[in-house]
Structures are given as structure tokens and as C-alpha cells.
Amino acid sequence: MSRRCLAVHPGALGDVLLAGAALAHLSALGYRPTLAVTSRLVPLFEASGSVDAVVDLEGLGLHRLFMESPDRRALQDLESFDAVVCWMGAGDATFRSNLARIGRPNVVARAAPPAGAGVHVSRHLVESLALLGPLSEDVPAAPFRVAETARAKAGEWLVVRGISAGDAIVLQPGAGSPVKVWPGFVALARRLRETGRPLVALAGPADHAVVRSLLDAGVVRDDSVARDWTLPEIAALLGHARAAVGNDSGPTHLAAAVGCPTVAIFGPTDPAVWAPVGAHVAAIDGHADGAAWPGLERVEAALGALLARSAGDAPREPAHAGAEGTWR
To answer: Which neighbouring-strand residues pair with 247?
Structure first.
């Protein structure tokens, strides 16, 4: 009989997606993972097929385990699991001690490797599970699916704009921090428009200024900007795309997760640690050229290589194919 394991990850979208291999490893060990994440991520992971269940992290009340004498109720919900994995609280002895009181195998580890370790996050998270069973040399496959309703809505949105499924290049010009925004999106969009490829831009709540630069330059149509979509809808749109180009951001990781050919552009962060995991991913930075960012030509070349390679692959089912992980 399979065992239930609670896996707690407090991070943002991209961080949690990098835990896909670890969640798949838990399944390979015979556990049925229940993933605890922030409420915004719950609908996306509920439909993903990557875990047995998803719960709102806040509802668990794990903050009480940081107290010297927690209320007994703080442990009761955890006792229904056969094991608990917390990618949080590793630096707090009180939290670790209280979690051990549930009398179940438990792992408390950092959500990312120490600075300078040079280990990819996905590998770090898998290796954090060594206490629960033997580790595999291979990266576990991390399936990721999208709700049919979201898939249909994204498809209809494209049709209204005269874009066929599998044609659009999706641009993710924003990021969680302005310092992670590649400055070449306008130039890239201009080049792509010259090839006749339809372009779509994603705009989250913090991305409107950078998207405005694309609109002002006339390289993206206003009606081709997907503004403030839900995460399941963004995943579905990316699943319909020909390819995606984005910064080190959650939607770029999501593109890779759903199997979309993805160019991930890195500046201040290290792709050896943070690159998206997927079967069709090119993560590039400027280090080879001694620059803060890769140049336009390198981004174009990476995208062209992905498009050429994926053109020879078998047809991809939008937003359904599981993406193989790769250690970096």
C-alpha cells in the first residue's frame, strides 16, 4: 500500500516547479505526495497530475511549530501522513524539534542549495530526500498537465486573434525583480515580426511597464497581450505556443514544465542553479561573452535551434506532455 507524504514548499511559482523532480522521486519511492503551497498556486498544481493532492500552506498552521511550546493541534494534521518533507525551517532548531515530535520520518531542508554550491535546485531537492529512500542516478520525469477548461479558453483566445495553435511565440518580458529583466525584448520582437511569426506577450500585475515598451515600439499588438491571466490559463497558453522566450521568472519555468520549447534568459542569477527544467530548454546568460546579459544574436540563435529541433520531433500535445528533467 502506498504511503502518504506531505511536501511543504513556501516558494514562488518557479521555485516550486523546480521541485518537480523531487515530487516525482517521492512517488517512485512509493509515497503519494500531498503538496502544500501558497494559495495562488493551488489551482495550477491541482490540475497538474504531478502530486496526489494539493493544500493551502497557510491552512496547515506550520508557523506554530516555530514556538517553544506549540499547541497540540499544530501537530495533529501532520500525524495523518506517513512522512513529512519541509523545504523550509531548516535553520530553526525549534521547528525541527517540534516536527520530530510527530513520530514520522521527516525531512527539513533548505529550498535552495547554499550560495556558491553550484548545484542545480532540482538536484538539491532530490538529494534532500536521501533519508526516505535510495536516490536514483537519473532525474525522475516530472509530468505536468493543465485543466481542459483552461486549455480550451486559451485556444479560443488565440483563434479570435487569427493565431493557430502551435504558431505563436510567447514573450515573457517581465520578472519578479526589475534586475532580472533582459533589455533586448523590443529588438527581439522586432526581428521576430519580420519573420511573420505571431507574437503574444504575457503581462502579470508587475509587468505592465515593460510590456508597454513593446506596445510603444509597435512590435506587439495590444490585443495580443495576455493580461493578468490565472496560472492555469497561462500554462494552457504556453502549451499551445510554438515556443517561449522569457526571463528567469515563474512563467518561463512554467513554459518549460508544460513542454513548450523555451529560451530562458539569465542576467544576475545563475542558470547552473536556477535554469528551468524541461525537455526543450535553452538557458543562456552573458558569462561566455564577459557581459551582464546575452546579446540579441545569441538569444535568436538559441530560439532558432529550439525551433529547428522541435520541428523534427513528434507533434506535441499542448499542455499535456510530461517534461523530462535534466540535471544542470
So the answer is: 265
Q: What is the CATH number of the domain that holds 63?
A: 3.40.50.2000
| Domain identity same for 13 and 95 | yes
Residues 268 and 123 grouped into a single domain: no
**How many domains does the chain contain in total?**
2
- Would you call 168 helix, strand, or coil by DSSP? coil
Same domain, 288 and 183: yes
pTM attached to this predicted model: 0.93
Q: Which three cell numbers stand for residue 145?
A: 498537465
Measure the CA–CA gap between 208 and 220, rounded to whole angstroms: 13
| Grid cell 552573458 in the structure block, residue | 286
Cα dist from 68 to 63, 111, 185, 195, 239, whole Å: 11, 23, 50, 63, 47
Helices 231-240 and 148-160: crossing angle in degrees, nearest 10, is: 60
Contact 265, 182 (CB under 8 A): yes
- Other beta carbons within 10 Å of 319: 27
Return the closest-CA partner of residue 42 out of 225, 231, 215: 231
Q: Are residues 52 and 157 in the same domain?
A: no
Same domain, 287 and 187: yes
H-assigned helices in the chain: 13-17, 20-28, 42-46, 57-60, 73-76, 93-100, 121-127, 148-160, 185-194, 208-216, 231-240, 250-257, 271-274, 296-311
* pLDDT tens digits, one per residue of 39-95: 999 999 999 999 999 999 999 999 999 998 887 777 888 999 999 999 999 999 999
Identify whether residues 48 and 180 lie together within a single domain.
no
**Do residue 222 and residue 254 come from a single domain?**
yes
Going edge to edge, which strands form the sheet with 281-284?
225-227, 199-203, 169-172, 243-247, 262-265, 281-284
